[in-house]
Amino acid sequence: MTDLAVEPDPAGRGVTSTASRGTRILGAATIVSMAVLLLYAFGITSPDAQLGESIRIMYVHVPTISLTYLLMVLNAACGVFYLRRRSEFADLLGHAAGELAVLFLGFSIVSGALWGRITWGAYWVWDARLTTTAVLFLLYVGYLAVRAVQAEPQVRGTRSAIVGIAAALLIPIVHKSVDWWSSLHQQRTLFGTLDPEIGGTQLFTLLFSFVAFGFLAAWLLVHRFRVAWLAERMAERELEFAIAERRSEAQS
Question: Model pTM?
Answer without folding.
Answer: 0.86
